[in-house]
Design brief:
3-stranded antiparallel β-sheet; elongated
């Protein structure tokens, strides 16, 4: 049990450090497919809201002033555990996350203008 907890803490620390390094090293990064990543620190807090974070129940709501077309939740190794596509003009969505285990995830919101917003998401 202690070994698993230690391993989890190490993975959490490494992934958190990698996310922070990526956010500090490049504000915008072109992946070659015309998608540009926009990190949480680059958007104003009134442009997008992910609530509640950390998630304490089963529901999460994403609200944006800019139309989004897709939301993904990735596990710690980068595998999509939830992916939803939306019709153009969508600015608000709610999700039931009861099927996800407690832990750290990444939420990624893709906008109509091909920008991506990423942020850490903790499920308690």
């Amino acid at each position: 049990m202690k070994r698993n907890l230690l391993l989890f803490c190490i993975v959490l620390a490494i992934s958190s450090a990698l996310i922070n390094i990526n956010a500090l090293s490049a504000k915008y990064f072109d992946y070659g497919n015309n998608d540009t990543i926009v990190y949480a620190g680059d958007m104003k807090s009134d442009e997008i809201s992910i609530f509640p974070n950390p998630v304490v129940g089963n529901m999460i709501t994403v609200t944006s002033q800019t139309d989004f077309i897709e939301i993904e939740i990735l596990n710690i190794v980068g595998r999509a555990v939830l992916q939803k596509r939306f019709m153009p003009g969508t600015t608000k969505a709610a999700f039931n996350l009861q099927h996800l285990n407690k832990g750290l995830y990444i939420i990624r919101v893709k906008f109509e203008n091909r920008n991506l917003f990423t942020e850490k998401l903790m499920i308690k």
